[in-house]
Design goal:
The structure is a single chain. By secondary structure, this protein is mainly alpha-helical. It has a three-stranded parallel beta sheet. Strands 4-5 form a two-stranded parallel ribbon. It is elongated, with a radius of gyration of 26 Å. Bound molecules: tryptophan and iron/sulfur cluster. Iron/sulfur cluster (SF4) binds next to helix 14 and helix 16.
């Protein structure tokens, strides 16, 4: 089975944007893949180290929402990052071979410093946080990492770090010797082009240098097929694959609109929580703004100018939607008539979520047990990888 890993910072109770944008996708993945889903509590500390008191409640509240969404601990392994201290060891060992420049140029480093101006993010931990994420991913030899667009550079970094790690620690002297023989057979000019290109690719991740090296292989006149293949392998590391390179599985940008037409987000204060009270949801929906042109009941409206309509696009299917659209445009229905079926759909969805959450809300021990079990499984998988990693870097003692 393909291995999938994803993590989420503990932000407390989740909203419907998380459910539609992330969690439903996790649920879809869990039956066909070996899934690891974890609470990235150390990641939260890299930016929110001044608020440690909030962590405990945030972690458990978020986990109940995961379970409410249908993430199934029988199928997926759920755990808390800090309860698997192997993540710290792998992060440390990866840090030995990660050039400072790679971290400094990760876009989120400067972006977040700009965005979170009220925090001091000129810290070692914050600079290293994408590498901690690399450790999270490589630890479970994940093949796929479901992430939003903003996280893709972190998966890209992970690939480069894995490649470099394998290059440095996965050396096979016998293979290298043969490969170097093939390099010499390229002829002086192409041998130089290949070697420079290869080292710039492996040391610095420069894709253009890889192209140059490939070009040298193709251009060299009389190279055997065997040598060609050998050089192609040598170009991409050539060593043993200790840590496989993961692929980002881009989660389509969450189209989930909030109460004001902007993307649903805690920071815009426009959310409906997954387990909101029905009365609160009703009040929120009924006070939502609509097409400003519909001052009175008999004013025709344009659904495209109405944030309620954006929610209908998520919750209401074709036929009903069409008749509502017509009703709005022809002023045959009022906005309350339009909001009612939407409210009903949301409440129905939330009833299912609440039902799944109920046993865990009633008995918080149950969540602890799920996590205890998940952490054990995660530690066992992590330890397997770490034994190989320790052996490769020389810290597995006899
Ligand atoms: N950095 C991610 C975020 O802020 C969370 C995360 C940590 C993660 N480690 C991960 C996501 C590994 C995917 C894979 O949202
Ligand atoms: Fe919006 Fe519906 Fe009112 Fe039209 S009828 S403005 S779509 S709430």
């Amino acid at each position: 089975m393909p291995r999938i890993l994803s993590g989420m910072r503990p932000t407390g109770r989740l909203h419907l944007g998380h459910y539609h944008g992330v969690l439903k996708n996790w649920v879809d993945l869990q039956s066909q893949n070996q899934c690891y889903f974890f609470v990235a509590d150390w990641h939260a500390l890299t930016t929110h180290y001044e608020e440690p008191g909030a962590m405990d409640a945030h972690v458990w509240d978020m986990l109940v929402d995961w379970l409410a969404s249908g993430v199934d601990p029988e199928q997926a392994t759920l755990f808390i990052q800090s309860r698997v201290p192997q993540h710290a060891e792998l992060h440390l060992l990866l840090s030995m071979v990660t050039p400072l420049g790679w971290l400094l140029r990760v876009p989120s480093f400067k972006d977040q410093q700009q965005k979170l101006k009220d925090r001091d993010l000129a810290t070692y931990g914050f600079l290293g946080y994408p590498l901690l994420q690399s450790a999270d991913i490589l630890m479970y030899r994940a093949t796929g990492v479901p992430v939003g667009e903003d996280q893709v550079p972190h998966v890209e970094l992970t690939r480069e770090v894995a490649r470099r790690f394998n290059h440095i620690f996965g050396r096979d002297p016998a293979f290298e010797e043969k490969a170097e023989g093939a390099v010499r057979r390229l002829g002086k000019k192409f041998a130089k082009q290949f070697s420079q290109g290869r080292s710039d690719w492996l040391q610095n991740g420069a894709a253009i240098s890889r192209e140059n090296a490939l070009f040298a292989i193709e251009s060299s006149a009389n190279l055997s097929a065997e040598d060609r293949e050998r050089l192609a392998g040598y170009l991409d590391g050539g060593g043993r694959e200790i840590l496989p390179e993961p692929e980002a599985l881009l989660t389509p940008a969450a189209k989930m609109p909030g109460l004001d037409g902007q993307k649903m987000s805690k920071s815009y204060n426009n959310t409906i929580q997954m387990r909101d009270d029905p009365e609160r949801v009703s009040a929120k929906l009924m006070s939502m703004p609509t097409d400003p042109a519909r001052q009175r009941r008999h004013d025709p409206g344009d659904p495209n100018k109405c944030p309620v309509w954006d929610l209908h696009k998520v919750y209401t299917d074709g036929e009903v939607r069409q008749s509502l659209e017509q009703g709005c445009r022809r002023a045959e229905i009022g906005c309350v008539d339009c909001k009612k079926p939407l409210l009903a759909s949301i409440l129905e969805e939330q009833a299912t979520l609440r039902e799944r959450a109920e046993p865990f809300e009633k008995n918080p021990r149950l969540v602890r047990e799920v996590i205890e079990h998940g952490c054990e499984r995660a530690r066992a998988a992590a330890e397997e990888t770490l034994i190989e990693v320790r052996a490769a870097v020389g810290t597995l003692y006899s």
